């Protein structure tokens, strides 16, 4: 007489096929269980008992005050030379913005920061 395959389960530790009446379940975490044969279940229970009886050593850390790590980069202006801002208007996307004319030809080209075009800029 051959055993029905639906009545066999495999142990998750030793991977042997065990009849369903000899299967034991042991909690793995809050939602899942181990499906184990009886020798593996005994081993796992003994491991859990020793793990729960000896409390883990916890290191205590001294909490330091939280401080702002981000420090904005401050650009240094040349002494005696202040930033010269012009109010600009893009006729293409109708965006108003300020443009530093002392840096516009050196560090970047004068264009609209919203649409990136420079063909329809006006001073306002």
In short:
With 124 residues, the chain is an alpha+beta fold. Helices cover 16% and strands 23% of the residues.
Computed CA radius of gyration, to the nearest angstrom: 36 Å
Query: How large is the count of helical segments?
Result: 2
Q: Helicity level, as a percent range?
A: 10-25%
What do the pLDDT scores average to? 78
Shape: elongated
Distance between the termini: 97 Å
Q: Main sheet, how many strands, which sense, barrel?
A: 3 strands, antiparallel
Backbone structural class: alpha+beta
Low-confidence stretches: none
In the sheet with the most strands, the strands line up as: 6-5-7
- Tell me which oligomeric state these chains represent: single chain
- The topology string of helices and strands comes to EEEEHEEHE
Note the beta-strand portion.
15-25%
Instruction: Tally the beta strands.
Output: 7
Describe this structure in words.
The protein has 2 helices and 7 strands, in the order ββββαββαβ. It is of the alpha+beta class and 124 residues long. Among the domains are: 7-53, no CATH class; 85-123.
Considering the chains and any ligands shown, give keywords for the structure.
7 strands; alpha+beta; two-stranded antiparallel ribbon
